Amino acid sequence: MIAVQLHTRTVNEPGRDRIRELLDAVLAGDGGDRLQDLAATAYASPFHFSRQVSRAAGEPPVAMRRRVMLERAAWRIQRGGSVTDAAFEAGYDSVDGFSRAFSRGFGCAPSAMPARGERGHWLPAPNGIHFHSPTVLYVDAGGVHEQPAGEVVALMVRHDLDDTDALLGAAGSLSEEEYRRERMPGHQVLTWSGAETSLAHVLRHLALDKLPWLASIEGADEPDLGGPDDATTLRARHADIAARWLAMTRDVERRSAWNDRVIDAICDPPESFLLSQIVAHALTFAAHRRQLARWMLQQAGADLTDPVLDPDPINWHRRAGGGPT
What we know:
Elements: H1 18-27, H2 35-41, H3 46-57, H4 61-78, H5 83-89, H6 95-106, E1 129-133, E2 136-139, H7 150-171, H8 176-180, H9 199-208, H10 210-218, H11 231-254, E3 261-264, E4 271-274, H12 275-299, H13 313-319
Antiparallel strand pairs: 1-2, 2-3, 3-4
């Protein structure tokens, strides 16, 4: 299910990703849900493995695996998968056995599972660990934490989205040659994100880089980041992404869910991210790229005197009706 590798380190060792290691031993692979098999994955005795996992997660390892696999089965059934396929993917030897377990968990037969718009696919969990999509697990922090995002983060999110739209609009007036001219040879904002040597490169990242994060948070399929990268097309795609990003951050704030996390198996090795970390990351590098885009637009001869291109969030907020001009 999720292929992560357990490292046999002590519970208190610095740098240890406890959740990732736990999921590796309990949820990875297709070896069934026998305690002996799960313990063997962690190179531990069944007794010590069960005690360690139960203490760390508040749920016995076999029970956790069965619950998450039932959640995965419900997720697949709600998206058109057959009950038979879901049963065998969940590790059951028969459809009848699967149907009984499913009915105990969800209160209905698999064939009667409500549509995803009517009911979610999560079951009650003492640790907040849930199946979210084939490549993502979601960890609900549980309860309300005194770490509200507040109006400052809301302002920064909206400013980032509006400013990106303004920059894409300004780039639409450039010639193809100026738009794609290499201006910073060898430049990379992040080592794993590829070269960003032209305005086209920078604006593509600004427009699309939130999409993989949204897919992880929403439990959607891995997004297609290809397609045309002219400024007009990117602006249209950004408008759709911006609406979803804004809705996501507002929902997280409403639920006080900034300490919830997703565990993304597309990463190698899989990594867990707090929702607060995801938004902070996106805002940090978007701010850098927006200033970089301004410099490149200026080098290309674009007119940046329009007030809508003023990078100051104070002036943007005032223009948006948030304060005195």
